[in-house]
Amino acid sequence: SAAAASAARSSGGGAGSGGADGAGSDGGAGGRAPATSTFWFLLHALCCLVSLFLGFRFSRLLFFLLFSTTALYSSTSSSSSSAVLRATTTTTTTTTTTTTTTNTFTLSFQANPNPPPSNLSNHTALDAAGAAGHTQSHVVVGRHGIRIRPWPHPDPVEVMRAHRIMERVQEEQRRWYGVKEPRHVLVVTPTYSRAFQALHLTGLLHSLRNVPYPLTWIVVEAGGTTNATASLLARSDLTIVHIPFPDRMPHDWADRHATENRMRLHALRVIRERKMDGVIVFADDSNVHSLELFDEVQKVQWMGAVSVGILAHTGTADQPRLSEEDKQNMPLPVQGPACNSSGHLAGWHTFNSLPFAGKTATVVGEAAPVLPRGLEWAGFVLNSRILWKEAEGKPDWVKDLDAVGENGEEIENPLILLNDPSSVEPLGNCGKKILLWWLRVEARADSKFPQGWVIEPPLDIVVPAKRTPWPETTAELSAELVDSKQDQEGRRLSRTD
Amino acid sequence: MRRWVLAIAILAAAACFFLGAQAQEVRQGHQTERISGSAGDVLEDDPVGRLKVYVYDLPSKYNKKLLKKDPRCLNHMFAAEIFMHRFLLSSAVRTFNPEEADWFYTPVYTTCDLTPSGLPLPFKSPRMMRSAIELIATNWPYWNRSEGADHFFVTPHDFGACFHYQEEKAIGRGILPLLQRATLVQTFGQKNHVCLKDGSITIPPYAPPQKMQAHLIPPDTPRSIFVYFRGLFYDTSNDPEGGYYARGARASVWENFKNNPLFDISTDHPPTYYEDMQRSVFCLCPLGWAPWSPRLVEAVVFGCIPVIIADDIVLPFADAIPWEEIGVFVAEEDVPKLDSILTSIPTDVILRKQRLLANPSMKQAMLFPQPAQAGDAFHQILNGLARKLPHGENVFLKPGERALNWTAGPVGDLKPW
Amino acid sequence: MGTAAVAAAERPKQRRSSHLWKKALLHFSLCFVMGFFTGFAPSSSSSWRAGSGGGGGVQPRHQLATSHVAVNQQVSLVPDAAAAEAAGVGNGAVVDVGDDEGGEGARRMLIVVTTTRGERRRRRGELLRLAHTLRLVRPPVVWVVVEPAADAAATAEVLRGTGVMYRHLAFRPEENFTTADAEAHAQRNAALAHVEKHRLSGVVHFADAAGVYDAHFFDEIRQIEAFGTWPVATMSAGEKKVVVEGPLCSDSKVVGWFSRDFNDGTTRAVTYNTEADLNPAGAAGTRAHTIDVSGFAFNSSILWDPERWGRPTSLPDTSQDSIKFVQEVVLEDRTKLKGIPSDCSQIMVWQYTMPMQVHAQTSTPKTHNRR
């Protein structure tokens, strides 16, 4: 390798100086002829060597192709021939790198042919005849050094490369095991501007961005579209349909529930109007989803149901408070389809609100637990064609969307669209698998929060630091604040500077 | 004159291109062949009808009683000797007529002698083996006919029939003289090593199939670990200085890659060990005291590309399993470059290895399931034995001819068992 | 004259060169053929081959490895040198090689630590939501999840479905914790012990599973050289309370701290005394009490290489309470503290408290970690 590399290197050098030389002799410098001819002779010899080497390589390759018969050997030849190729390219390209490269490269191979001095070598000599065509063992028995490389690591470039490999591997896994021809996913989300909106909507947005299928996110906003919501949504690269809903979100929890239902219905009408094709998933911004849900919904024919884990919480005061231990031991309440032993829909698990009994229809946050009522929309999945006026193979047990909710009655859940609710397809291992969680946490409706979550300067009270402003007790701090405020009146800082 | 240079360049480029095209062609050809067919066409051979095995009926002190004394023998990585016996007893290749047998099997559990902590001690094994051979040689005529050349023995200990766990001692001892002519079925495999004689069959170590089955996770679980390894880096109790154990390779793995987030390596054995292998791209299979370890089996079964770090290793069923195609081989001295080596493998090559590993026949060949299944390791052993048939002329001795020296070997080994 | 002479000289030269051409090509092909036949010679020439190139077909078993090494050497040389250089300055912790491959240069690693406790039932959902966010963060990211060993099996199943590169640490405490805070504190130390043992190098942040992060947040904290801090919004479920706490910044420099409740309109804030800042004695006097773990990130090398950060080696045993140590260092070394984003006005982290917990542990946000 060293020889070949140096040959290639000097041929590379020759290329440069040859050009210069050519220009010189063109000018008629006859006196330099002997030097030039020596040079040409050398170059010629080197090129001959290169040819020799190439010929040799070529024949080895042929040798392997022709004379290896078993599968193992031909497979070996494939890797060895590629190795040959790589070795050749290396020797030519190393001309641009340093000499050390070549040295290390050579060293790593020179270790092989010399059987190391050990008691093993006696045996290798004995057995060598038997292992025809194989190398001699170069493994030394005894103590070895622990090789620790001197250069630092990990090499960031390699780290990135490894991550790309893993990305490709995961992509390939999805290709092998995933849904072959995925359907479009239409996600319907009612939302409105409030303290927890940024938190919830950002969470949902991140989940949706991970969905590996084509997806359109239909966001219905109560009280009209706002810039705050729009700018939140704009941060994703999802296809988003942001629809205003004229009514404002009421404060009363029961009314709020009804309004959200009407918002969903509004979204469904839009889907029907635009004849959007796909699987409709009802995702509230406060839901947490498992990505498996989006795999499961690909299976739905007309209407499917999934199990929703209910993570309700109790209100602030006067509630039948559960001790920490009770909470831990209580099984997670689940809402969703119940199957019989033969795997058919037999009924529904609904959320039992008894442990949370009390005022359920009050203003959010005023001593009331936020609880689901009946069956949540989030537990249902629809084929959007079920909404279309005309669709191929649309079953006759489906009502027309226009016939639903006309008189302003509340639509509790999508089951109302069906004449025969037993046709619902239970998904997620027949409802045994919880694919999303209902994790409704809201602040009191009248909570104030910074617009766009940007803190506006200036802040009023600014005193020199003795400590961070959130020490153990408030009383201590306020005293300190007052004191230092008087002392340091003149040293106020505004955040604008 | 510039044309000269140009011509050379063209010549060189053409040669490179030509060679490259050749290499590429070979590669392409294999890809289709391997993927459309099966990885090892030989793996699907059915040994039934191709050989007949006679199982000697030995007193239970050579096998069943040992197991009764210590049932832990059923679970350690040397358990192949027990399961092979059980398998042969009910196998279709078994014959009760020794006259028509192609192969003779002596059911002797030489590694079923465990320390309280569960490690097998091979100190009594030579005497036990000798005792068993003496028994069959006196009670049946078939041993003396060939002096064992048509007999096979399962010797799954670290260094096979050398019966010692320290390599230097094992080499010093060499293969038990009485087994010089027999075919050895063993886990140990290293080229040109005294403890691996020609014609031996290298088998995978025993890994509990039911337990592995129970830990299977869906194949679409994203592989989010780049390199995975759990096990010792230093064997401080046996090798306080370091450098003997794994010839320093494992220590080198730790020292070079403990701080690399891509390398999920540790000495802790978590309960999710099998699951974690299934979500790794590469699984390190470095040598330990011997070149082989159960990780080879685990990696193949769990579809994790084995990174084999053991110079000159002879892999299980290497004539049937395309180890070159499914694994990555890293020389022990190249361990410090492991990250560069692994990250520079083209992604297509990695994906292809994974596709091959997904082939069920490859996984099957690594396991000793109960009951046996077509294509499993038992069948591969039989296939290996069948491929050695018919027996050559030198197998059977002329009347009166003797090849074995019954008094060779350390004095301690000659004592009765 | 000049032109004529040149023209005359040109012609014979051409003839001569075409002659040379033929001769040279003949030689080359002869050599090629010679080489070709040498290749067929028995493998006694193996030693020469081994010394001369890729090892040919001598060692099939090592082909793959060796060939890769060969390829690699060219690749690794350059970054190695750069890395070595960087190591001289920054001990390899902060190696920014720049855009090496397709504009995807090396990014600093993020080490996101999540401790789990409290309501087991919420955990699955919360971890999934955080995992979805982390999945969107460009690599390299390592997610360290610590939790009591008893709960680990169920969580392992959740984690492995996410596709995030994670380390799952089962935590077996020696003591029983009286408060959730004490447990979280011990878990964080367990995570840092892992980071320290493995010398993982990157930006460490403690992310609460119940928190929600803006996706850009992680790109921001990746810029941290030493320490970084930012405002955090904490909301209370079922109450009228939105509190933002965080640093007061001026041009990425932290000049103080504030805490503002948007509903009762109160703001508490302090700024550093700049004169005291310049005076070491004064600086020592202004030692702050604590900093909320949800509000800062730090370069992990402080854990195992404090000297590099200009800190004495004879520190109190950091292995015992690393998190406390880091919290103190962050507040003391505020010149190295970077405000995020540059004017610290944009909130990118939201967390909430549940009323249940509010009652159980006074009225402090649950992620607060006090001495």
UniProtKB/TrEMBL annotation, chain B:
Keyword terms of this UniProt record: Glycosyltransferase, Golgi apparatus, Signal, Signal-anchor, Transferase, Transmembrane
Single GO biological process annotation from the record: plant-type secondary cell wall biogenesis
Family label: Belongs to the glycosyltransferase 47 family.
Subcellular localization(s) per the UniProt record: Golgi apparatus membrane
Source superkingdom: Eukaryota
Organism of this sequence: Oryza glaberrima
Annotated GO MF terms: glycosyltransferase activity
Listed name of the protein: Exostosin GT47 domain-containing protein
One Pfam family here: Exostosin_GT47
PROSITE patterns: PROKAR_LIPOPROTEIN (PS51257)
GO cellular component: Golgi membrane
Main localization of the protein described in the UniProt heading: Golgi
Membrane topology reported for the UniProt record: Single-pass type II membrane protein
Signal sequence segment: 1-23
InterPro entries referenced in this protein's UniProt entry, alphabetically: Exostosin, Exostosin_GT47
UniProt KW Signal keyword: yes
Glycosyltransferase keyword on record: yes
Residues covered by the Exostosin GT47 domain: 50-345
Automatic annotation (TrEMBL), chain C:
Protein keywords: Cell wall biogenesis/degradation, Glycoprotein, Glycosyltransferase, Golgi apparatus, Membrane, Signal-anchor, Transferase, Transmembrane, Transmembrane helix
Presence of the UniProt keyword Transcription in the record: no
Cellular compartments annotated: Golgi apparatus membrane
Membrane topology: Single-pass type II membrane protein
TM region positions: 24-42
EC number of the protein: 2.4.-.-
InterPro entries documented for this protein: Glyco_trans_43, Nucleotide-diphossugar_trans
GO molecular function: galactosylgalactosylxylosylprotein 3-beta-glucuronosyltransferase activity; xylosyltransferase activity
Pfam families: Glyco_transf_43 (PF03360)
Principal place of residence: Golgi
Entry annotated with the keyword Mitochondrion: no
Site (Interaction with galactose moiety of substrate glycoprotein): E245
GO-annotated cellular components: Golgi membrane
GO terms, biological process: cell wall organization; glucuronoxylan biosynthetic process; plant-type secondary cell wall biogenesis
Enzyme class: transferase
Family classification: Belongs to the glycosyltransferase 43 family.
Role of this protein: Involved in the synthesis of glucuronoxylan hemicellulose in secondary cell walls.
Record's protein name: Glycosyltransferases
